[in-house]
Amino acid sequence: MSLKNESKEDLDTKMIILGPASGVSSSELVQKIHMLKLPLTIKSTCYGAMVHGEPDVVKKAVEEARNMDEFNIFIKDRGFPPGDPRRCRGHRGAAREGFHQLEKEFKLLGYVGEALANPKEVSLEEPQKIPVNEFHEIAKSMDLNDEIDE
Q1: Structural domain includes residue 140
Q2: How far is CA 147 from its chain centroid?
Q3: Model confidence at 1, in pLDDT bands (50, 70, 90)?
Q4: Which residues, at least 6 apart from 58, have a Cβ–Cβ distance to it below 8 Å?
Q5: For the segment 83-142, what is each residue's pLDDT rounded down to a tens digit?
Q6: Residues 45/111, Cβ–Cβ less than 8 Å
Q7: Is residue 124 part of a domain?
Q8: Range of the domain at 42
Q9: What pLDDT digit, counting tens, does each position of 38-51 carry?
Q10: Is residue 48 part of a domain?
C-alpha cells in the first residue's frame, strides 16, 4: 500500500510529543514506529516525531508510541503533512508557525504527565462559607483554656 495513491484529504498527520519526564528519546520513538513496518511517512523532530498516513494506520502507530511511556508521550493533530512548504521551516527560513505555541505547551507537559500518573479526585464546586451563627456556635463550644495548657 503506497501513500502516493491516496488523496491528501484522506490522510492524517499526528505529532508525537515526548514530555520532559519521558524516558524515551526521539530516536527510540522513531525506531519503534519504523519497526511496526506500517505504510507511514515518519519524521523525527526535536520534540519527538511526526507520522503521516491513512487514519487507521496513524492511529495504530500513535497507540504503540503511547505504550512506550503512557504518561509522558502526548499526541497532537497537525493540519499539514511533513515537509509541506507552507509550514516547513526549510522552505520558510525560520521557525514554523505554531512552533512557539508548541514550545509553550511543552513546559506544561511535565505537570500533565504527573497528574496522569497520580490522579486525584477534585471538585469544581467552590467551598461554601458557613453561616455566621454556626461559626459563633463553634467558637463558643471551644474551651480556650485547654489549648493554653498544652
Answers
A1: no
A2: 50
A3: very low
A4: 12, 13, 14, 40, 51, 52
A5: 777 766 666 666 666 777 777 888 888 888 998 999 998 888 988 899 999 988 888 888
A6: no
A7: no
A8: 3-117
A9: 999 999 888 899 99
A10: yes
